[in-house]
Design a protein that fits this description.
Distance between the termini: 44 Å
CATH topology of the largest domain: Rossmann fold
Number of domains: 2
Radius of gyration: 18 Å
Strand order of the largest sheet: 3-2-1-4-5-6-7
CATH architecture of the largest domain: 3-Layer(aba) Sandwich
Bound molecules: nicotinamide-adenine-dinucleotide
Order of helices and strands: EHEHEHEHEHEHHHHE
CATH class of the largest domain: Alpha Beta
Structural class: alpha/beta
Oligomer: single chain
Amino acid sequence: MTTKTAVVTGSNSGIGLGAAHALAAAGYNVVINSFSDRPEDHALARVISERHSVRVAYIKADMSSGAECRALVERTVDYFGSVDVLVNNAGIQFVAPVEEFPSEKWDAIIAINLTSAFHTTAAAIPHMKSAGWGRIVNIASAHGLRASPFKSAYVAAKHGVLGLTKTVALELAEAHITCNAICPGYVLTPLVEAQIPDQMMAHNMDRETVIREVMLDKQATKEFATVEQIGATVVFLASDAAAQITGTSISVDGGWTAE
Ligand code: NAD
C-alpha cells in the first residue's frame, strides 16, 4: 500500500492539531503548518511522528498570503511526493458590531478563513488529478449554516467556505476527488478558551455558568465537541467509505443546527 500524504493548514493548535494526530494515527504522512517558525513547531512534528510512526513535517506558511498558501502545497509535494488529503483548517475570529468592525480584521478573516482554501485547493488539484485520487476537507463551522450577532466576517467567511466546497465538488466529481466540509459547534480549543474571560466579564457570570448558559446556549447537548471527534470525521471523509460523499457538510455541533 502506498502511504498517502495529508496537509493540514493551521495545525500547531486546536482542531488542526487534532486532525493531524488522527490522520497520522490512520497511517498518513502529515504536514502541519502555521505562520510561525519556532523550535516548538518543529518539535511538535517530531512528537506526532514518533507517536504514530509516520513521517511528519512542519512547514511555515502564512495563510493570509495566497502565494504562501500555494507554496505550502508545492513544498508538501516536494517533501513527500504527493498531496492526497488537504484539510483547510486555519482560522481566526474577531467580534464587533458590523458598523465598528475594523476593515483590516474583516480582510484578515476573509483571507485566512476563506481565500486560503481557494489558493490551497487550486494548487492541490493538479497533483490530485495526476494521482487520480484526492480528498479535500474544509473546516467550516455551525456559523457556515447559522449567524450570530457581532461575527459578520467569520459568518460570511464560513458561509463562503460551504459555497466553495459545493463548487469544487461539482468540478471534480468525475476525477475521484471529493470535497466536503465539517461544521463544528463549539470545541474547547485556544480560540474558544480565549473568549471565556471576556464573556464572564460581559455577563457577570462564573466560568461554568457562562459556558453552559452563553457559549453552549444553542448546543443542545450542552457539551463541547472535541478535537478527537473532529479528527475522526476528517479521517472518515478521507476514507474509501466516503467516496460517494461530496459537496456536502457534516455537522459535529451537539444539535445546534437541528433547531
Ligand atoms: P486555534 O486558534 O486553536 O487554531 C487555529 C490555527 O490556525 C492555529 O494553528 C493557528 O496557528 C493557525 N493560524 C491562524 N492564523 C494563521 C495564518 N495566518 N497562517 C497559518 N495558520 C494560521 O483554533 P481552532 O478552534 O482549532 O480553529 C480551527 C478551525 O476550526 C478554524 O477554522 C475555526 O474557525 C474552526 N472552528 C472552530 C470551532 C471551535 O469551537 N473551536 C468551531 C467551529 C469551527
